[in-house]
Design a protein that fits this description.
The structure holds two protein chains of two kinds. Chain A contains seven helices and no strands. By secondary structure, chain A is mainly α. Chain A has one domain. Chain A is elongated, with a radius of gyration of 18 Å. Chain B is mainly α. Chain B has one domain. In chain B, 81% of the residues lie in helices and 0% in strands. The chains are: A mainly alpha, B mainly alpha. The interface between A and B is medium-sized, with 31 and 37 residues.
Chain lengths: 161, 156
Amino acid sequence: MEGFVQAIEGTAINQWVLGSQWAWPIMEILHFMGLSMLLGSLLIIDLRMAGFFRKIDVGATHKMLPWVFIGFGINMTTGILFVMGDPARYTANIGFWWKMALVVVAGLNALWFWWKINPVMKTWEPHADTPALAKVIAWVSLGSWFGVLLLGRLIPYIGTG
Amino acid sequence: MFEWLELTPVALWVGESLYGYPFMLGLHAVGLAIVVGIFAMRDMRLLGQFSGISYESIDGLRKLAWTGFAINAISGCFLFSSQATTFVVSTPFLLKIGMIFLAAVCAAIIQHRMHADAAKWDESGTAAVGSVRALAFVSLVLWMGAIISGRLVAYL
């Protein structure tokens, strides 16, 4: 990790993030907007996939998927810039690593959805209950993303491992 | 009065205990994701996105959104108590509270209008009426403004 930190410190991006008075707060604002988009759209998609809010057409919730990717894209970009700006702080923080592990869990869970649920979703009744596996995947998604949110917010308060 | 508030046992617990402040901050992030996330999706639906999701069905998420609002009103009061004298003179904080108040008024009017007319828009397949669309746009701007000013409380 020390090699990683040394490789980043002094780079142009590192210097820009550290040197500009407004870079950090603007990135934080974008990160908060991104999380609202990501979690807002996922809440609706996943709660419906878990069998709640059956008035909502389950297939139509996927029209919100672009906002999942937009929110994730904003937060991945700003997130990488945070780490580039202050690599020593993040790599030494156990909360950051737990957060990244949960992002990986959420990603694998999304692949599981893509593999097992997405192909059969078209056959679902728009307002019916959902299969057990879909419910499991929905709850893993919500659990991991809200875990990511909490760990992210608490990074400043979690020890350095 | 704000000095007194900062010295109450609750405020001291939030401000000085090991877990008080992070616990309230964590709740505040969860509530933010719920209230801003759900209301933003509803606003975008009103602005013409996600056709196929009926207006009536997305209006059914209002209780969940207000639950997020309540989580943040409560955790926000705890967080405020610990630094009341600082927050009460902070321009971004006062702006944030003003925008949240206006956004809540917007949400109340929007759901009142949706309760009356959403089924009609769904049935006829038409877009929401212009005044409701305008409110949805204002609501989005206010929530984004609340996030911007809320973050700037820590910097200005």
